[in-house]
Amino acid sequence: MDSNIIVEEIKKYIQQNILAETVQIDANSNLKQAGIDSFSTVEIILFIERKFGVSIPDEKLLPENFKTLQSLATIVQELMPEAPNT
Amino acid sequence: MSKQLFNKSDLPKKVFLSGADCFHLVLDKHAKKHGAGGNVMRKIFYFDRSLSFNKINSILSGSPVIYWLCNIKLVSGRFFGLPYWKYVDAGNQIVLQEHRSSIESDIPAVILKRDITVDSTRFIEADLVYYPSGRCAFVISWNHILLDAKGTTLLFEHLNQISEKKNQDPGIYFPGKEKRPAILSYIRNMYQVKKFVQVSARPPVSSVATTATKSGDGATRTKIISFTLDQTKKINDNAFTCGSRFGPTLYLVACCSHVVHFLNQQRNRAGDLWIPVPYDGRLRGAIGPLISNCVSFLFYRIPKAELIDLPQTVACLRTQMTAQIKEGIPQQYTMFLNMMRYAPLWLYYFLIYHTNKGVFASFLYTSTGDNFNELNSLFGEPIRNLHMIPALTFPPGLTFVFLKHDEVLHLNITYSPEIISDNELLLIEEKINQTLLANH
User: Fold this and answer.
1) Inter-chain CB proximity A20 and B326 less than 8 Å
2) Which one of A15, A19, A37, A49 would you mutate to disrupt binding with B, by most B Cβ within 10 Å of its Cβ?
3) What is the pLDDT of residues B101-159, one digit of tens each?
């Protein structure tokens, strides 16, 4: 799946469910500085697992992987099964 | 609403209490019954220079929010109606009191013992304490029914804006119109949450206090442990190593649990622990509301068998945190509290007190997170240090408060001397230091 699509999906979820209307983020915004705390990070993980059908293993639960929408999208891409060649 | 000059004409005539506010009304009743020091929160700011009394008084008097807090009355709900704050505009101004102490950083007992109840004229009080070194402390005390920890951060931002003569958005300070879910959602949530809490808090739960214990003079004592920058880093590293992957919260809760378990073992009363941990219900990055408690809870039950080592306890907490966030327990609990507002106070108190057999928790834990980490100045003056003294809920009569300021962690142990003896406090201090700073 294209990284931009993943970024947009996660961004939409965060903006609708976690962040106040006044807080705007883009692919490279620092999520912690935007107000994302440990509880919200768990909410984001649960959303990612539900939406993209992946399971994020413990070794990927590193602060640097949850720093921006872009870094989250990279993790999702790594964990998603490759589309079969047609 | 666009930014404009915020003044008294913007103040709301009527503000309904939130579910969490009403829960604090119950705690207030409980505090009165047990004479346990009241439901008063205090924040202490230390400054290197003496602040001008007149300047601070003028800033405080210029705040419409503070004026509102000095001019309201609680109107109890009748016939299952909601309780609300009625703005009476009686012309009461905040009273800023001046004190002198010969002991550096000491806060006079007159401030710490002052109660602010639902019957008080003002719900907020302010004090300036001057020391011989030329330094001073500013203390602000308020009844917890009106403001939670995040609300106070917003209050200080509001005071800073007044001090800098900046325009403010009057729309952000008071709670907006509440979205009321369908009655069936309410009933379903009430049932689910009641079931969840009953299972989670099922007896036997070991507490630092017993229901039979009552406080004598209501004295609340505090012990503050300030960690260095290196120690704070070590605690954060330990948290990560022990499995608390997104911030140290679970590790801090686990460390406090180990200390309380150790204390219970010394008293031959070790058992499972049950701890409600506050959860800010505002959207992240929200700049309002300032007034009203927007707090929900995550509830952790730690079986005795999971209190052997820290990574194991953190894993136990993490599993419960994930499951509760997945189930939406904090949101459901908010709905539960909102529904409970319709019950008369005596019935609410009866239900809470008898469901938990008078024990609200094994101990209490709270953290201000990063709320105050970057609050570097107040009234235009750099803050040297700050502390928070929470309202002590009794029982259990022991609260651990973590506060981060300027990247350094502070722990405030607030306790009732009837629950924790002097020797036990020394034991707690030693054990919490060892546990937080252990090599993992």
Assistant:
1) no
2) A37
3) 999 999 999 998 888 988 899 999 999 999 999 999 999 999 999 999 889 989 999 99
pLDDT digits (tens, 9 = 90+) for B22-41: 988 888 887 777 666 678 99
Q: Which domains does chain B have, with CATH numbers?
A: 8-172 (3.30.559.10), 183-374+392-436 (3.30.559.30)
Identify any residues that bridge with B278 across adjacent strands, giving them in sequence order.
Answer: B297
| CA separation, residue A68 to residues A2, A7, A77 (Å) | 16, 9, 14
Q: Is the CB of B321 less than 8 angstroms away from the CB of A39? A: yes
User: In which residue are the tokens 């993790």 written?
Assistant: A75
Does A84 fall in a domain?
A: no
Dihedral sign, CA of B141, B144, B148, B154?
Answer: negative
How far apart CA B203 and CA B199 sit, in angstroms, is 9
State which residues of chain A have pLDDT below 70: 83-86
Q: Which residues of B touch A33 (CB under 8 A)?
A: none
> What's the structural domain count of chain A?
1
Q: How many CB atoms lie within 10 A of CB B125?
A: 22
Model-level ipTM above the cut of 0.85:
yes
Task: Select the residue of B285, B298, B326 nearest A20 (Cβ to Cβ).
Answer: B285
Q: Are A41 and B246 in contact (CB under 8 A)?
A: yes
- The phi, psi pair for B72, rounded to 5°, reads -125, 160
* Per-residue tokens: B250: 């679970």
CATH number for the domain spanning A29: value is: 1.10.1200.10
